[in-house]
Amino acid sequence: MIVLIDSFNKHQHSEILNEMFLLRASQSVGASGAVDAVQGGDVPDDFDRLDPAYIVGLDEACRVISCVRVLQTTGPHVLADLCYDLLQGEPPLRTATLWEATCFCVDTARLDASGQGAGSVVGAISAITVALLEYARDSGVEDIITVITPQLRDIFQQAGIVPFDCLGATAHPCETQTLVALLACTDAQIAHLRAISGLEGALFADDAHVCAMRAGGGSIVQLKLDLSDDIALYLLEQIDAAKTMQELQAAIALTRHMLEPGGPGAQRGTLGS
After folding, report:
1. End-to-end CA distance of the chain
2. Could you state, in order of their start, the residue ranges of all structural domains in the chain?
3. Sorting pLDDT into bands at 50, 70 and 90, what band is 188?
4. How far is CA 77 from the centre of its chain?
5. pLDDT in tens, 118-130
6. CATH number assigned to the domain covering 2-197
7. From the CA atom positions of the chain, what is the Rg in Å?
8. Residue 157 contacts residue 174 (beta carbons within 8 Å)
9. What is the pTM of this model?
10. How far apart are alpha carbons 153 and 137 in whole angstroms?
């Protein structure tokens, strides 16, 4: 499950953002990319104060397992203002149809490092990259430029993510070898990545579902295991229909009640089992 967090909804997802920053801070330079190498691991950094968009991957318990930060290149961004030496004398790329993605990060301690599917490092990178490309494409963006390390490039290649262009350099102020990669936000590229990674359906969850799952301790995941059950469908509909935080809290409270041991749902043997 993927959640998009930007200036419009970040007040709803402050806990997720805190978890995301903790994950970034805990990662090595190889996982987090050039920004952490330059900033000495400062999280959040100056670019986080520009109200970027974040694409954050969550596991079934709604814990943060992956993330990437997205900035427009028409304003301040890492490649233009921090790792400009990587451009090898070329002027910074600034256009409304090009976005910068940095701070690719996955929870290598929680995810399987050797597998390919859901619950693996490669699977998490595949999902968050497809989400990134779809979000960019739907926003009218044609290409993504990203500052990554050779280690992350290798993970990209394992996932079938092949940049159509790449620059490489070891340059001050970046303290590690970094690469500038370009990714095309095309339907063909997205379809290719979805096919080889087995991703189907919508990746982004709406804010109400994410808030409900966080507040309910994953109870909505339990409900989704049996969508044929009338009560489960009813509870999900109540959460989806919530228009205010008060209505959402009421729907969550009802869900918790139904999942309590000895509660109505547990008595039927269909919920919370």
Report:
1. 22
2. 2-197, 207-268
3. very high
4. 19
5. 788 889 999 999 9
6. 3.40.630.30
7. 20
8. no
9. 0.74
10. 22
DSSP letter for each residue of 217-260 = TTHHHHHHTTTTSHHHHHHHHHHHH--SHHHHHHHHHHHHHHHS
Q: Which amino acid is at 219?
A: S
Q: What is the pLDDT of residues 205-225, one digit of tens each?
A: 988 878 877 776 554 444 444
Nearest in space to 43 (alpha carbons), one of 32, 30, 51: 32
Tell me the sheet residues that pair with 120.
112
> What's the sign of the alpha-carbon dihedral 177, 157, 52, 137?
positive
Token digits of residue 175: 């303290």
Pairwise CA distance, residues 224 & 87, whole Å = 48
The β-bridge partners of 55 are 4, 68
Identify whether the C-beta of residue 43 lies closer than 8 Å to the C-beta of residue 36.
yes
Q: Are 55 and 135 in contact (CB under 8 A)?
A: yes
Does the structure show a pLDDT above 70 at 36? no
Question: What is residue 39's three-state secondary structure?
Answer: helix
In terms of DSSP H, where are the helices of the chain? 14-26, 29-32, 34-39, 78-81, 121-138, 150-158, 187-197, 207-215, 219-224, 230-241, 245-259, 264-268
Tokens of 133: 């490309």
3-class DSSP state for residue 64? strand
